[in-house]
Amino acid sequence: MSRSRLSHAIESGVIALPETGRIALFNPRADSDLSALPGDRCHVIQRHYPDHAALQAQGFDCAVAPSGPYAAAIVTLPRARAEADALIAEAEAAVGNGTVVIDGAKTDGVEAVLKAVRARAPLTANLSKAHGKCFAFEAGGHFTDWRNAAPAPNRDGFLTLPGTFSADGIDPASALLADHLPDDLKGRVADLGAGWGYLSRRLLDRPGITTLDLVEADHAALECARANLDDPRARFHWADARDWQPEARLDVVVTNPPFHTGRAADPSLGRAFLDAAARMLAPTGRLFVVANRQLPYEDTLAARFSRVEQIAADNRFKVLFAQRPARKPR
């Protein structure tokens, strides 16, 4: 692992952290270089399950919400600006009058964030390195209006929070998938990568479904799904869909799998969802998946299922159906 901008800022003395007291780390990634930090004083606040689990395995004390007091806070910027603003406000509120450090890449919008922060609070440090910036300010109620409120209705009436996938409205790929699901779905069903619950809401219109497991890595999105679904058949799992195991084999899996890691396209992520679905399904189980038209998921499905076909498409997305999973890839 190469030396990070944050580690360089701390070790060079540009960023001065307090010698005592807990340090809140908001949104660090699993592969973050945190070697310059006093690990025994760090409290990680990470709401993305794979990163949370990986950092916990590295020995960090991890949670999904702050529990101060903290002497300082470090925010690793996410991609979404509204989510970044909310994290900065949350960090400032958690440290009282302590130091808040912001670390981010240019591709994550750090230049715009720096400009907005500097307009409200004097900077105590500012380092440019490795196509990004690391800067700091002293907390003092500068950003209270940036804090997230409760989930609010989007344009389609679903409760969402900034930073969740497709927070502004129904994702068109999910809508295409929902519109082409058969009416006869029944039994044990799972929605892998359930987000804030749109596909699950559509699934629960089918009385033959006995249980519906929503599996989602984004803790905020899953909490929104809880608010959007009032049905005793729905069960909520904060987990990595690639590793999650149902209590019994499933009759149906639906998924709109992610295919990006950060900003980079990563089709292997979607393929891992399809492999996981094959492991979860009963011998006659059915899988329904939506994907961008150019993604080559048919080969993955053909290696894992006896029957594969495309059942719908538009100019951007395709809906694929697979049935009868093989326990081992062919």
Which keywords apply here?
2 domains; 330 residues; alpha/beta; 18 strands; 26% helix; 7-stranded mixed sheet; Rossmann fold
Describe the structure.
There is one protein chain. The chain has 330 residues and is α/β, with parallel strands linked by helices. The protein folds into 2 domains: 5-146, Rossmann fold; 152-325, Vaccinia Virus protein VP39 (Rossmann fold). 26% of the residues lie in helices and 30% in strands. It is built from 9 helices and 18 strands. The strands form 4 sheets. The chain has a 7-stranded mixed sheet with strand order 3-2-1-4-5-7-6, sandwiched between helices. It has a 7-stranded mixed sheet with strand order 12-11-10-13-16-18-17. β6 and β7 (132-138) form a beta hairpin. α8 (267-280) runs parallel beside α9 (297-304). The protein is elongated. The mean pLDDT is 94. Keywords: Cytoplasm, Methyltransferase, rRNA processing, S-adenosyl-L-methionine, Transferase. InterPro entries: DNA_methylase_N6_adenine_CS, RsmC/RlmG, SAM-dependent_MTases_sf, Small_mtfrase_dom. Residues 158-320 form the Methyltransferase small domain. It holds the Pfam family MTS. This is 16S rRNA (Guanine1207-N2)-methyltransferase.
